[in-house]
Amino acid sequence: MKIGIIGAGAWGTALGVVSARGGADVVLWSYDGEYKAFDGVDMPQNLKISRDMADMADMDAWLIVTPAAFFRETMKNAQKYYKNQPIIICTKGAEPTTGAFMSEVLAEVLPSAEHVGVLSGPQFAAEVARGVPTGSTIAGDEIARETGHEILNKLYLSDSDDIVGVQMCGVGKNAVALIAGYNFVAGAGENERAMIFTRAWCEVATLGRKMGAKSETFLDLCGVGDLFLSATSETSRNFSGGMAIARGTEMVGTVEGVSALRGLIARAEKLGVPTPILCAMRNKMGL
Predict the structure, then answer these.
(1) Exposure string (b/e) for 24-46, b if CB count within 10 Å is 16 or more?
(2) Overall fold of domain 2-161
């Protein structure tokens, strides 16, 4: 199977490594020809790096792993090379300017895409690249899910048809992890941290259900699994980003939680869903 991975940051490179180990021939597209090198991890021989988007045309499936802020532009550039391959969205986050989920952006840019899936779960890229046991949720129609299982056969995947819920979990955990990191530094105590953490996630789940998500999705790997990983570890860029805000220092890397928090609140206001904790924390952090 020939797999095209669009985006060669840490997560894209890690997925390229694990897909190649699973037997796929992988072409990893990078806008500058660079990729993330992991200490102690050799790049498989069946993984190639390309700067030419035209190389995606002959692939059997696409994995999209570009940051949310560049998702729309990247997919516009990929339009002319798309030949009805199944697409699995591996980007977690909301578009900063609109708050749209990545599946919503994809539907606008590539309306012909028929088999679209979403991958989300507790995944630190370096551990995936090193072969540490990792589980995720794959959501989408049957063909998209089967494609995901075939490509990512080195991961444990739980199946879901709740694309909205899985994406809400990905966006929501970014926001809640940012809040958790902030409160780790600036909170009054552990009791308060636990209270705010729990109520913030309840608001995310309530908003998700209003949008049609299933309650059980928030208990799956993409939900509490990813939330636990992202909101309890300084390895998480969102958690460490929240800590940086509290300390008045510069955030490092792409911190999706900032746009996620703003986007969730904007959606909630449009749908009439109260989010007092999310709003209060946004105001505290000056976002």
Answers:
(1) bbbbbbbeeeebbebeebebbeb
(2) Rossmann fold (3.40.50)
